[in-house]
Amino acid sequence: MPESKMETWTDSQGKKIYPVTQQSQSNRIALLINTETFTTSLYKCRAVKDEKVMQNLLQTLGYEVVRCGDITAKMIDKPLKEFSEHPKLALTDSVFVTLVCYGGTGTEEFEIDQIFQHLNTKNCPALKDKPKIIIIHACRGVCVFVSVGEESADLLDRKQFVPTDDIESLSVNSVKGPRAQNEKDFIIFHSSTTYTGSYKHETYGSAFIQHIFEAVRKHCLTDDIEEIFRMVMQSFEEFPSEQMPTKERDTLTKRFYLFQS
């Protein structure tokens, strides 16, 4: 692999990859949020197990874990903003943001867009061109409603389409100087598809977190993160429920290997 970040990094198959160096690995940072929407002590017990599993996994991968617990979904904005200003972001090669949500009445809500707004290129330039891996465990059936923001609900009604003939003139007239894509190098890995619950075990916690732990532990030295997520999805194909983890808002333009030789 090339020694300079200015060069194109590739894997053994010639595919473009995100740069990882010894210095960037030693400055890795991750955010772990546990939202308190519990109605029973059993939910809390499961959430604590999931939180510990993810914390141990991230630390094993070399990430300093910033933990934020005992908050409600509506309080997520503050730790996200504080994390976006962390001094290590300028030195790390990537970040993980993990949200573990349990219980609730179905009315508790957080907006995924908050994560993107705080960590995008405009508001967090330190993470420009770096992988931002978002893992969310939240029942989309009855536990926690995950929203993409009010704007997206009536996007077609409130946004005016630009005729194709005007696109070139619009881009010439509106863009002044070089611009970078504001939302890039993100991926969300969600525990289930929309309107579907997430399976939990009263002793071991959530199946989603357990399957991530096993897949990353076995394949982090050989496979990129999207391939590892695909392995997790495949492990649910014969799972005794309708749960299927899903990748969303994937803008990773290169392969991200947690460890590179």
From TrEMBL:
Coiled coil: none
Residue ranges of the TM segments: none
GO molecular function: cysteine-type endopeptidase activity
Gene3D superfamilies: 3.40.50.1460, Caspase-like (3.30.70.1470)
GO term, biological process aspect, one: regulation of inflammatory response
Record-annotated Caspase family p20 domain positions: 26-141
Gene Ontology annotations for the cellular component aspect, listed alphabetically: AIM2 inflammasome complex; IPAF inflammasome complex; NLRP3 inflammasome complex
Sequence ranges assigned to domain Caspase family p10 in this UniProt record: 179-260
Family named by the database record: Belongs to the peptidase C14A family.
Name of protein: Caspase family p20 domain-containing protein
Organism: Oreochromis aureus
